Amino acid sequence: MQKKPNNRLKLIQILILCVSGIFLNSEAKSQNTKHNHIYLETFDELQQFLSYQGDNFHLISAHRGGPENNMPENCIATFENTINHTPSILEVDPRYTKDSVVILLHDPSLERTTTGKGKISDFTFSELNRLKLKDLNGNVTNYGIPTLNEALQWAKGKAILLLDKKDVSIKKRLEIVEKNNAEAYTIVSAYSFKDAKTCYNLNKNIMMQVFIGSPEKVLEFDNTEIPWSNIIAFVGHQQPEKKEVIDMIHKRGAICIMGTSRNLDLLISKGEVKDIESLKKDYEDLLKLGIDALETDIPVQLSKILTLTTEESTKFKYLH
């Protein structure tokens, strides 16, 4: 006599497979994001994390948050995607709406990055809230335009936000940081020493990115009376002509950040170089030169070819 199939046994087997699949997927996701969150609770910890220790610790700064296919720039979902692959500073672009809400959008107009048309400043936040963001290829996504407040609330315990200027003054950006109690995980970009002094005089517990690309600028910044422990130094979008500037900045306890978005990254994004591995030495040479953080358009791809830190670093304790 032919036995009847044991439906109960089959059901149990299916359930076991499903649970196993969920567990494995969860474990894979956990491993993927392990040590990619930057967990900082105080401004003192931020200062420590962004100070120069000479212990081979490097960072990626994701330009516009690190957009990819289906992941728009200046979008919280994109930020999540970036930190799923690497600990990161996330550079974002604040802009005013018509009714003075500070949102994140790079261009002054809407066409390139959203489903809207016209100038941002001609629309209220309520009107802009109906739009969807586009990815780098112009594909419409399901994501809307975030506010700076939303980004600051999201970033706590996960990443460091770097607030560019665009049309929002340093005083206003600082005010929003303070209202969100976000001094422990925010950097404010200062495009002049005057702006840096304004910001520091308003709040001594604020980290700034200041443009210091030459030995002469290092000496000039010495005279501002702003502690070097309150800044990271942006040395430019090209390798500094004189390595001396990097050594001078390090001697003062600050780290150096350099942009690769206008040079090496373009070779990849424009398709001139097909395999990023072929550029590995070029990026590594910048780190060996003394560049501590790379501002890049391709943070996910870079995270796959560069060793940025090890557990021996004194700063590794801040990565979760």
UniProtKB/TrEMBL annotation:
> Which UniProt keywords are listed?
Signal
Signal as a keyword of this entry, yes or no, is yes
- Domain (GP-PDE) spans 58-306
Q: Which GO cellular component terms are attached?
A: plasma membrane
PROSITE patterns the record matches: GP_PDE
Spell out the Pfam families in the cross-references: GDPD
GO BP annotations listed: ethanolamine metabolic process; N-acylethanolamine metabolic process; phospholipid metabolic process
Superkingdom, according to UniProt? Bacteria
Q: Which first-to-last residue range defines the signal peptide?
A: 1-28
GO molecular function annotations of the record? glycerophosphodiester phosphodiesterase activity
Q: What is this protein called?
A: Glycerophosphodiester phosphodiesterase
